[in-house]
Design brief:
Elements (H helix, E strand, L loop, with lengths): L3 E4 L6 H8 L4 E4 L1 H20 L23 H12 L3 E4 L2 H16 L7 H12 L2 E3 L2 E3 L8 H11 L4 E4 L2 E4 H8 L10 H6 L3 H31 L9 H5 L4 H14 L3 H5 L10 H4 L1 H24 L6 E3 L4 E3 L7 H29 L1 H4 L16 H17 L21 H31 L8 H13 L9 H13 L2 H10 L4
Parallel strand pairs: 1-2
Antiparallel strand pairs: 3-5, 4-6, 6-7, 8-9
């Protein structure tokens, strides 16, 4: 990924968003985008000169749309819009998501259909590149007329007001501008509205959750392979011929991963004649369950890729014809539905993972020591790790109630149907985080179980993953604080170490 990303006014990739969100890439405005901005801004200026009444340019907002604003008060109109819409509450948006939010808003403005000056986009990018991040409360947006409240908090910082976090230190915005040498922005006609009308909060939080979920889909196959080996499960259910008769893409990919991870298994050879006909569904149906999650995640990606490049302002400028059209591109229903599905899909990875953990703990089902400890009774082993996994899975069930089925009319019934997309995005993020912890518990438990099968080794991909865990977390001979071990394995998953270890042995997982 290049160290500098140029906004060309056309396309922004999800991986580019991630690079900026992590603080590893700078962003600049390209010449082609600058020309588009100038053309759209000229349209707004011509409309003002003609004294035509246009929503958001020289009128009030929402139910106040029919109130004409005098020319000499248009700047005040935009400033008051930003201040009055800074009504967000709750915890601040994390830095990664805040950077993504700023980048996405700059990208949409750079598409050249918003009517703002290049200076507006440049100021936004100057703040982003200086790691001068607005404090954006997470709650307060319905995803209806865009993400008005959170984007207003972003805009407020550009104006030199409110609070920001400068390179990790929270402070008042004027002090941060003085430190960085940046000047506050003075808004022109339509520019305040253009800064806050859009679905970029939904998209920023959603894209980062999606990218993490995509990683978890591969990790789920690694975790499942480890558990299958520890439970002496059969590899036959992953046969390529079976998958070909039900060729959903996710199922085919998951089964291929499992076959690769389990190749050369000494454990499998040790129980070839055991007489067991079939395994439990949590083992046998991994391709079907993991695969369906993959297909849901892929659908969410297809929607978010479109939404990232979508112009979600109102009104929208069409420079070629000189028109401003009011519409509903700001409505967040489409990404809201996709992110509700993302949460449901990712929750299924955690749900089946917890079932495998339960089997590992139960000596009747596993043939292993109770709770994977040598001296059960004196030691509780991994008993509470499973309890934690069950708790997280249960919480996910509540979070998976779709936000997009709800609607509360607001703004004197002008906004009489809303998407609740920001809630869908935040729930998806929470479910992804919980799923990662459940998978960490499964990986920790399966590695503990595999030690009881030594000197037999699992398949080469599973063995490489096991060895990566053991370099960070030793076998639990006696009881110790489990939270530390779980967090360490979760870190291996989050940073990509576990997947990379498996791929070093079997090649790129699908």
């Amino acid at each position: 990924m290049p160290s500098t990303i140029i906004l060309d006014g056309e396309h922004l990739g999800l991986e580019q968003i991630a690079a900026v969100a992590r603080g590893g890439a700078r962003v600049s405005l390209g010449d082609s985008a600058r020309r588009k901005l100038v053309r759209a801004h000229d349209v707004v200026q011509r409309i003002l000169a003609s004294d035509q009444q246009v929503y958001g340019v020289n009128t009030g907002f929402g139910l106040l749309k029919d109130i004409r604003i005098p020319r000499d008060r248009l700047d005040v109109l935009q400033l008051n819009l930003i201040r009055s819409h800074c009504a967000g509450l709750g915890d601040p948006l994390p830095p990664e998501a805040t950077r993504a939010l700023m980048l996405l808003r700059a990208h949409v403005l750079a598409r050249g259909h918003s009517g703002v000056r290049p200076l507006v986009v440049e100021t936004l990018l100057d703040h982003l590149n200086a790691d001068l991040l607005p404090v954006v409360p997470e709650q307060g947006s319905l995803g209806a007329s865009g993400d008005l409240a959170p984007l207003s908090h972003v805009a407020l910082a550009l104006l030199g007001e409110g609070e920001v976090v400068l390179r990790g230190v929270r402070m008042r915005t004027p002090a941060a501008l003085e430190t960085t040498g940046l000047a506050p922005l003075r808004l022109g006609p339509k520019e305040g509205l253009a800064l806050i009308n859009g679905t970029q909060f939904i998209t920023a939080v959603g894209v980062l959750a999606l990218l993490q979920a995509e990683e978890l889909a591969a990790v789920a196959d690694v975790a499942g392979a480890l558990s299958l080996e520890a439970l002496k499960g059969s590899h036959r259910a992953f046969d390529e011929r079976l998958q070909a008769l039900r060729p959903h893409p996710g199922q085919v990919d998951s089964a291929a991963n499992l076959r690769a991870l389990l190749e050369t298994s000494e454990i499998a050879r040790s129980h070839e004649a055991c007489g067991r006909v079939q395994d439990a569904y949590s083992l046998r149906c991994m391709p079907q369950v993991h695969g369906s999650a993959r297909d849901g995640i892929r659908f969410a990606r297809s929607i978010l890729e479109v939404e990232v490049d979508a112009v979600t302002d109102n009104p929208i400028v069409f420079p070629d014809g000189g028109d401003l059209l009011s519409g509903g591109n700001f409505h967040g229903e489409t990404p809201a539905l996709a992110l509700d599905l993302l949460a449901i899909a990712t929750a299924s990875l955690a749900s089946i993972s917890e079932r495998r953990v339960d089997r590992l703990m139960n000596p009747v089902l596993s043939g292993l020591p109770p709770f994977l400890t040598r001296d059960a009774g004196v030691h509780s082993g991994l008993m509470m790790a499973h309890v934690t996994a069950a708790s997280l899975v249960s919480e996910n069930k509540i979070l998976c109630h779709p936000a997009s089925v709800d609607s509360i009319p607001t703004e004197a019934n002008q906004e009489d149907h809303v998407s609740m997309g920001p809630i869908a995005a935040r729930k998806a993020r929470a479910v992804v985080g919980h799923a990662r912890m459940v998978l960490a518990i499964e990986v920790l438990s399966a590695c503990q179980a595999l030690d009881f099968l030594a000197p037999l080794h699992p398949g080469r991909g599973a063995r490489a993953a096991y060895e990566a865990v053991r370099r960070a977390v030793p076998f639990m001979e006696t009881d110790r604080v489990l939270a530390d071990d779980i967090r360490e394995v979760e870190r291996l998953i989050r940073e990509g170490t576990l997947r990379a270890a498996a791929e070093s042995a079997v090649g790129r997982l699908r």
